[in-house]
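Here's what a typical entry looks like (ABC transporter ATP-binding protein):
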Amino acid sequence: MNNYLYNISSGNPRSLWPSAWSSLVEGMIRLIPAILIIDVFNTIYVSFADPATPLNITRLWISSLILIIWLLPQFISSVVAYNRSFLAAYQVSADGRIKLAEHIRKLSLGFLGSRDPAELTNMMLSDYALVEQGVSHHVPQMVSSIVFPVLAFAGLLFVNWQMAVAMFLALPLAVLIVWATDRFQEKLSKNHIEAKNVAASRLQEYLRGIREIKAHNMGGERFERLRRSFEELMRHSIRIEGLMGPILMAAIVLIRSGLPIMIFFGTYLVIDGQLTLPVFLMFLLVGVRVFEPMTVLLTSYGELRYGAFSAKRVMAIMKEKPLSGDREVPAHKDIIFDQVTFSYQDDEQVLRNISFTIPANKITALVGPSGSGKSTITKLIARFWDIQSGEIRIGEEVLSKADPEKLLRHISMVFQDVYLFKDTILNNICVGKQNATREEIEEAARKAQCHDFIMSLPQGYDTMVGEGGSTLSGGEKQRISIARALLKDADIILLDEATASLDPENEQAVQAAINALVVNKTVVIIAHRLKTIKEADQIIVLDQGQLVQQGSHDQLVEKDGVYARLWQLQQEAEGWSVQ
Ligand SMILES: Nc1ncnc2c1ncn2[C@@H]1O[C@H](COP(=O)(O)OP(=O)(O)OP(=O)(O)O)[C@@H](O)[C@H]1O
């Protein structure tokens, strides 16, 4: 149970206290009518059993007056309990979602790459919705449902212990059933949650890939995958309800069996003279009221368990260790790869014992066949992953000890596939520097050759961009990302195939933007077309994760090696055309 509360409160069970306390007070206030009804019953019975005793009308008036006055504290305590539980629920889930998003940002891309984005989305939305439900409904319901049975049992023990025991005789068995099926429910919940994730993932894939699905006429096959995932989800939903339902019902029936057990024992005790009729009737009256909160308790517990299993998945991610390190890296220093070996997966080495220096404030180009490890080098400089052996240093500072956030302040990255947020162009450029002024943003956009095209848009800088930048051309997105980098003004610039897929006009504009960006910076540029990096200060040629050549363009074309061959091939390809 402790575990459930720990998980459901995102590791902070104390946040549940205010709502639990107010539910407890509310539950106690709700006891008052039950006590009064017993008293009213007694008052009537006394005069009914002995006609010589007059009916105590004053007592009945007082009881009804107390019941009317009781409505006010009952109303106040319900409102307070309701507000506190909802406040706690939204606070716990909002805090949890923010913490999770913050934590995910700090995890290595290696970890995130191994997780399905749809699963993380689902975690943020559905899992936390269950947490909300647990905190707002199930925890307070359980607390207030526990008050009446516990106090009733304690009180009734003094009246007649045999009857009190009879009332709760089947309770241990009901609790045992619920406890014994805990593992079983965990398994069913886990499968159900997994099926939900798969369905969400398939749906996301289907909607995101709708262009490819139409272009390649894959509707049937992709839709089939989606349909199968929904059917699987339906099967798991039926299984969890179909199997857990009867178990829960059995526990509820056992609790309710307290009533016939009481009647059975009570009749025997009355006949035996050990129980008076009014006390017997009082037990039946209380019994009927006691079983209701107990069934609510059981149902809420089942729901809480399901929510807690969802929350457990969130907690597992929260326990993943983020990249460690607190050192600041120095600006404008050489980047040194010293006998670096790296693999994404355990077995396959992508970089093998590789050593080279990227001189500060110079342009270094990375060249080599597809899959030789060029992009990997840029990602390692940004510490998206940590290496397995060797050392990467910036100046004297070892990268694995650097604070990842501080390190990224030194780096601007321009990728081939630029991602723009569904926001205004202005805010998309601002990503480079959150507190930039309008003048700074426009200045960066001018240098990045995108001011004119932005101004030609209907709302200029305030034009909304579709998710992922779907409403802009490749070249336009590219220039906006360069404007971001210009605004950030970091001392290390990583350019990954920035002009590869552009038409000549766009390429020229982007090239001019890049020229503005790289002045006085440490630049690492990846380019397949060698003519774009002819002027680089240093060219590093990679093949299968190893450094095979290093030098300037002129030095490398002179030598008989990979670079000279690639250069030759590209020169010949310039003359090709489709016949
Ligand atoms: N996230 C990843 N997980 C697992 N393997 C990866 C990952 N990213 C890249 N790889 C593998 O690492 C190797 C090097 O990839 P990398 O992207 O660094 O090559 P590249 O030289 O930049 O290739 P290209 O010119 O085609 O972009 C490839 O075999 C690739 O399949």
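Residues 121 and 411 are 28 Å apart (CA to CA).

More examples are in the samples folder.
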